[in-house]
Amino acid sequence: METIKAIHTRHSVRAFKDDPIEPQLLTMIVTDAQQTPHGAIHNHGKSILQRGTH
User: Fold this and answer.
1) How far is it between the farthest Cα atoms of the chain?
2) What's the mean pLDDT in 23-48?
3) 52: nearest Cα among 21, 15, 25
């Protein structure tokens, strides 16, 4: 997807499916997200990944 198209077609998700996600896919998504630029902020953010129904 082109960057400009992605910017203009983005949306917030407020409903989620109950479909399970493979642990390897979750690891890949979190690892890739950690590599995204954070602008001028040099401190690292914290993420919490919760699996399950609680």
Assistant:
1) 37
2) 77
3) 21
